[in-house]
Structure formats: C-alpha cells, structure tokens
Design goal:
Elements lengths: L5 E7 L14 E6 L16 E6 L15 H16 L7 E6 L6 H13 L5 H11 L7 H10 L5 H16 L2 H8 L3 H6 L4
Parallel strand pairs: 1-4, 2-3, 2-4
Helix pairs in contact: 1-2, 1-4, 2-3, 2-4, 3-5, 4-5
C-alpha cells in the first residue's frame, strides 16, 4: 500500500466520536450535512489533521439538499493524496472517517481511500476489508460511482458494491426496509447475490 503511515482505520458516527478520543487518531475526514454545527468532540482529541466535507446522504436530487458530487469525491481523493505525501515508513497513523451515523458517506469515503491507496487490490477484497472495519457499512452508491470513474476501475467497484449490498442484505435483512424508508430503495434493488 502507498499510505504507509496509516496502520489503523476507524469509521464511526458523530455520537461515537467521544469513544475514539484517546485512540491516537492522527487524520480525520468528517462528512456532515450542510448547516450542521461544527463538531466539538475533536477538542478532546490529540493533535490531528482534519478535513471536513459537507453534503447530504442522498442518491437522488431532493429540494434544498446537496447531492454527493464529483468534486466531493475529488476532495476525498485529495485527502488521500495528502495521507500519501505525509506517509513515513515505520510510523503508525490512525485514520478516522465519520459521517452522521457511520453507515453510508463515511464507508463510501473509506473504501474510496483504500482503493486509491492499494490500486492492485481487488474490488471484492476492498469491500471485505470495509466490512471488517465497519460491519454495518452501506456505502452511498453515487459516491462509489464517482470513485469508480475517477480511479479508473472500469465499473468493477460498482459491481463489487452490488455484491456488497447483497452480502449485507443476507446478513442484515432489516436493511432493505431501512434503506427504502430513507429513499434508498434503488440501492436495495441493485443488490446482487454475494
């Protein structure tokens, strides 16, 4: 992997942030809704580098909401390049990526960063790693589509996402109703057998 400085990865929601304050987090990617107040939990963290992106967790346009866009994924990849440039072999960094619940935007961002940092890794392997980090991962499909395109994965990341959705529905069938209630039924229909 190129990002030699990152040896630990954490995904969480806002309410879980206090739990990780003593975990030696060195880099944080925050993805929160536009208009959400700044997060003060980080005042209890040791010195770290943090980037904040603001857009909504939606997959279809909605009034007064900001869709995930190519420029957001470009910013995530820029964050990944910063991790790579700051990498020092032999050091141990801890990357924390969070959104509101630690389920969708943050997991899409983390798998994007892992795909960027390990371009030789297979797509299904990346999603398996993601589930190891965050078992309830349901990555935002719009973000994954943009990541697939920007990383030159030729549709393979999106196909692996469909298998990941299938895996999640096999293990957490309640996700189907939850995602439909959130207006994400199209992702449930995307699911392929794992």
């Amino acid at each position: 992997m190129k990002t030699l400085a990152i040896s630990s990865r954490t995904i969480c929601g806002i309410e879980e942030l206090p739990v990780h304050s003593a975990a030696g987090v060195t880099h944080v990617l925050s993805i929160i809704d536009p208009g959400h107040p700044d997060i003060h939990h980080f005042e209890a963290y040791s010195k770290h580098l943090r980037t904040t992106l603001r857009f909504h967790d939606i997959i279809d346009p909605l009034p007064r909401q900001i869709m995930p866009a190519k420029e957001h994924v470009t910013a995530i990849l820029g964050f990944g390049e910063m991790l790579d440039k700051g990498a020092v072999e032999g050091t141990a960094g801890h990357l924390l990526v969070h959104c509101h619940m630690g389920v969708s935007r943050s997991t899409a961002a983390m798998v994007t960063l892992m795909a960027q940092g390990d371009p030789d890794a297979g797509e299904d392997e990346l999603f398996e790693r993601l589930r190891h980090i965050r078992s309830k991962a349901w990555p935002n499909s719009v973000m994954i589509g943009f990541a697939d395109e920007k990383l030159g994965r030729g549709g393979k990341l999106v196909e692996a996402l469909r298998r990941h959705y299938g895996h999640q529905l096999n293990h957490k069938p309640e996700y189907a109703e939850w995602m439909r209630d959130l207006g994400r039924g199209r992702e449930v229909e995307m699911a392929l057998p794992a």
